[in-house]
């Protein structure tokens, strides 16, 4: 665990330093796009934070390749280089879009290409679909499901990038929970290269988000842009597939491993990677339905995302962000507690996870409701994007 802490601190420090450099360069050379009609920030703000995040991630990947503690992660170097290759493609396309607003078809094609690199070259695929019994996807079904999952998560994360600190904070919370889950799985049941790779990726993402968040906090000095959001979505989806899609069926079929709640234990490895990005996925799904119902492209920008609705309800930018943080923490922590309960020797320990969810959901609903008194409108520096 000490090595993961060191990796987190190194990644956060490098990302923070590079964010400062990118911000200074972007301000000096006016590397920021014009304010769009759908934007609500009032002053031109660089959207190149994704470059610093990417370089911080690459730096930690390269450093880890020389650390004996992460030798198991580099047991299959092709997988790691494929992840870096896919991340490079996404960041290049994301930066181009942040500067010049590329056509959505170009971006979508690049996303499928990056997903194919992860799946086809890196071999990161969903081989097992563990729903209580052995269900194996192989060949083109496995590749197709994996590619679609990666593309959907990338777009889901990108779609909620609309308020200062929203994506960085949500991903920080989500990856912290997924780190705990992956680390527990590696410690207790499956100390394989795949599981350790998932743990390593989540630690690096935690460092990337922590290092960039100070520059993205309201009022933001810099946005992560499509480059940063797509990078986070790509790596989060990949880490989830690495561990969950490769869990041996016998691990989930053995009642002794999941105590007396084998059914819940078998479902949780599938559920938890989904719930940690549940809000982005929900926002993405609603946007697709809303836009296609109007005869528009699913990727055409509008101002009806969940965070926009929060602002229209009267929440301030920061309050809206905290509400999203709260929902992300409650949902993901509840499932994690259920997992811990099902893997313990104490029958029914998963019930506190259920109780935590209901109590937390009630509290979140109360803070989500419109404020009793609408705040006086003020100039906002938040980013609103697709």
Automatic annotation (TrEMBL):
Bilayer disposition of the protein = Multi-pass membrane protein
Record's InterPro entries? Glycosyl_transferase_4 (IPR000715), PNAcMuramoyl-5peptid_Trfase_CS (IPR018480)
Q: Which chain regions cross the lipid bilayer?
A: 6-27, 48-74, 80-100, 112-129, 135-154, 166-186, 198-217, 229-247, 267-289, 319-342, 348-369
| Annotated CDD domains | GT_WecA_like
Q: Which UniProt keywords apply?
A: Cell membrane, Membrane, Transferase, Transmembrane, Transmembrane helix
Main localisation: membrane
Q: Which domain of life is it from?
A: Bacteria
The EC designation for this entry is: 2.7.8.-
Molecular-function GO terms, alphabetical: transferase activity
- Compartments where found: Cell membrane
Q: What is this protein called?
A: MraY family glycosyltransferase
Per the UniProt record, the source organism is Microbacterium dauci
């Amino acid at each position: 665990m000490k090595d993961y802490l060191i990796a987190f601190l190194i990644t956060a420090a490098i990302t923070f330093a590079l964010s400062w450099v990118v911000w200074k360069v972007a301000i000096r050379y006016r590397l920021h796009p014009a304010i769009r009609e759908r934007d609500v920030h009032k002053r031109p703000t660089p959207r190149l934070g994704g470059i610093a995040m990417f370089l911080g991630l690459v730096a930690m990947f390269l450093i880890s390749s020389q650390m004996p503690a992460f030798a198991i992660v580099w047991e299959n170097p092709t997988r790691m280089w494929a992840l870096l290759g896919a991340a490079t493609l996404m960041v290049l396309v994301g930066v181009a879009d942040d500067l010049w607003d590329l056509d959505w078809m170009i971006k979508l094609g690049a996303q499928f290409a990056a997903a194919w690199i992860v799946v086809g070259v890196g071999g990161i695929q969903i081989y097992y679909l563990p729903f209580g019994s052995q269900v194996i996807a192989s060949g083109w079904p496995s590749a197709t499901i994996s590619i679609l999952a990666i593309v959907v998560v990338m777009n889901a994360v990108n779609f909620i990038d609309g308020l200062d600190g929203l994506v960085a904070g949500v991903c920080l919370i989500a990856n912290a929970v997924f780190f705990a889950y992956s680390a527990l799985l590696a410690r207790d049941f499956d100390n394989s290269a795949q599981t350790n790779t998932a743990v390593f990726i989540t630690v690096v993402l935690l460092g990337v988000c922590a290092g960039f968040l100070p520059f993205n906090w309201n009022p933001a000095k810099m946005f992560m842009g499509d480059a940063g959001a797509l990078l986070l979505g790509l790596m989060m989806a990949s880490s989830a597939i690495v561990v969950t899609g490769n869990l041996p069926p016998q691990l989930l079929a053995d009642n002794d491993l999941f105590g007396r709640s084998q059914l819940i234990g078998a479902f949780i490895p599938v559920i938890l990677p989904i719930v940690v990005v549940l809000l982005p996925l929900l926002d993405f799904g609603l946007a697709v339905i809303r836009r296609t119902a109007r005869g528009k492209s699913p990727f055409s920008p509008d101002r009806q995302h969940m965070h926009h609705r929060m602002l229209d309800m009267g929440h301030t930018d920061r309050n809206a962000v905290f509400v999203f943080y709260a929902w992300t923490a409650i949902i993901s922590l509840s499932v994690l507690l259920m997992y811990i309960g099902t893997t313990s020797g104490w029958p029914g320990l998963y019930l506190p996870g259920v109780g935590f969810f209901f109590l937390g959901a009630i509290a979140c609903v109360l803070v989500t409701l419109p404020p009793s008194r609408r705040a006086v409108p003020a100039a906002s520096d938040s980013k609103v994007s697709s």
